[in-house]
Amino acid sequence: MTGKVKTRDRILKTALALFNEEGEAQVSTVEIAGVLEISPGNLYYHFKGKEAIIEALFDEFEEEIRQVLSAPINRSLSIEDNWIFIYIVFEEINDFRFFYNNLTGILERCPNLRPRFAKLLRLKEETATSILASLEQDGAITCSRAERTALASRFAAHLTFWLQFVSLAASETDRRRIINNGVYSAMMMIAPYVPGDRSDFAEILKDYFSAQN
Amino acid sequence: MTGKVKTRDRILKTALALFNEEGEAQVSTVEIAGVLEISPGNLYYHFKGKEAIIEALFDEFEEEIRQVLSAPINRSLSIEDNWIFIYIVFEEINDFRFFYNNLTGILERCPNLRPRFAKLLRLKEETATSILASLEQDGAITCSRAERTALASRFAAHLTFWLQFVSLAASETDRRRIINNGVYSAMMMIAPYVPGDRSDFAEILKDYFSAQN
Asked: Which of A20, B23, B45, B82 shows a CA-CA span of 20 to 30 A to A141?
């Protein structure tokens, strides 16, 4: 039993790395088996096709991202706490970037993932909404209800697509730089709602971001 | 000659419709030929494979989107003018949505499109930057340089990915509703930079948007 569990996990780990590196569409189960030095038949025993592998990887991702998004929301007013939270979300997405890089293609072949992914997007929106509501309550930001709803949607879209946007627009390949850029941009979305001298906050963010890179 | 040009255009028009409806990955050149009631050989005469069709469609899209983004910028302060401009950009993207729905997959198979698409993304950023600079000059918005740069990037990302985000998150299928939602969200990005009573502007946008649907 231990042998089987180990092989299953090794298959998933290898598939994930290959999917992320080369793009899921370019990778076959034969290639995955080859890298692992197991027979295609052995791989088939564990996963009856690439879609089964993708769905198992999605199970793992779904569990991890739910944990991160459901973390007890202790809304400190410090930039550091917010920075780290957004950074971790981007890291999770980056670890499963193959999925985000071919959303439509994968959801076409694995249609049962579609409602589950839609649920994750709505969870991102809900998390953003409660963080914004807490920041509003603490007086850290000033934001009407209409602004908060629209901002939460854009925030969820930003988390979902920013990594892909930066690698396409800037041909940037350093993952850490891409993630830092994503966190900075996410916080700049909130910056205009900080009362008082707003562009001070934007300058603070800019300096903080430059120090990260 | 006229006959050949007509067939070439008919192939592109049919391919575009099929790609948009079913997803580019699901559509074969055999299917396109079948719908047009021409032989696969006849299609091959015009386009030596699906990638050639995709690249010809990209040529058309690139020309159209460049025209829209380079339109003389007559920065009126009216919501209507801004609304229409952003709406047209989203319509262009919607007309070529197959491409945006499988960016990574297509750019992997058509690598010469990668730098051209990166250029389009930067053009979107530049257009956003000059619109914001004009609005700042007219006093319609108050925005520091750092804020403007970050906002222009987010604006370009928003134009690129919003349509896909809405169809995934909300399972919305009415294209007009999706585009209107995109325009509303785009203008809500600018709303916090409007001086004076900011949430008034957000309410105006909300009412305008509801009237469009």
From this structure: B82
Which CATH number does the domain housing residue B185 bear? Answer: 1.10.357.10
pLDDT tens string B105-126? 899 889 999 999 999 999 999 8
Provide the ipTM.
Answer: 0.85
Residues B110 and B168 in one domain: yes
Write out the residue range of the structural domain in which residue A28 sits. Answer: 1-48
Q: How many domains does chain A have?
A: 2
Q: What is the spatial distance between Cα A122 and Cα A126, in angstroms, rounded to a whole number?
A: 6
B83 — contact with chain A (CB < 8 Å)? no
Residue A38 sits in the same domain as residue A63: no
Give the closest-approach CA distance of B66 to chain A in angstroms: 16
Say yes or no: A91 contacts chain B, CB-CB below 8 A: no
What's A163-198 look like in SS3? Answer: HHHHHHHCCCCCHHHHHHHHHHHHHHHHHHHCCCCH
**Do A68 and A103 reside in the same domain of the chain?**
yes
Paired tokens of B178: 């999706």
Q: Which residues of B touch A158 (CB under 8 A)?
A: 154, 157
